[in-house]
């Protein structure tokens, strides 16, 4: 026989809001590409972005998702947390000159609902 207290406890647990797990994405940088070339984040969901350089020194800034300071990317992983506040597709470019292919070094960021 189920007690009222355990039934109420189960009902409260079922009614509790589900907390989304934090998204974590690794982005590597080398001359002259980010891998992956496109990342997808969810609107209003905190995400950890882990940047690591596998060749050369690079940088990135993505103000549209709250990353307004240039993050220098080297061989040591750098983790930043962002919470996108706008839906859309945004293009980030390497922010530290890395050679002749620097201008074509892009990272596309899609923010979805």
Q: Could you provide a short overview of the structure?
A:
The protein is mainly beta.
Give the overall shape, derived from the CA principal axes. globular
Rg from Cα: 20 Å
Mean pLDDT: 86
Level-1 CATH class name = Mainly Beta
Distance between the termini: 44 Å
**Number of DSSP-assigned strands:** 9
> Biggest β-sheet, characterized?
4 strands, mixed
Proportion of residues in extended strands: over 45%
CATH superfamily heading: Cupredoxins -  blue copper proteins
Tell me the strand order in the biggest sheet.
Answer: 2-1-4-7
CATH-defined architecture = Sandwich
Structural class: mainly beta
Number of domains: 1
Element order, helices and strands? HEEEEEEEEE
Which parts are unreliable, with pLDDT below 50 for 5 consecutive residues or more? Answer: 10-19
CATH level 3 topology: Immunoglobulin-like
Helix content: 10-25%
Itemize the secondary structure elements and their pairings.
Layout: H1 4-15, E1 23-30, E2 33-35, E3 38-42, E4 47-53, E5 58-62, E6 67-73, E7 78-82, E8 88-93, E9 106-112
Parallel strand pairs: 1-4, 3-9
Antiparallel strand pairs: 1-2, 4-7, 5-6, 8-9
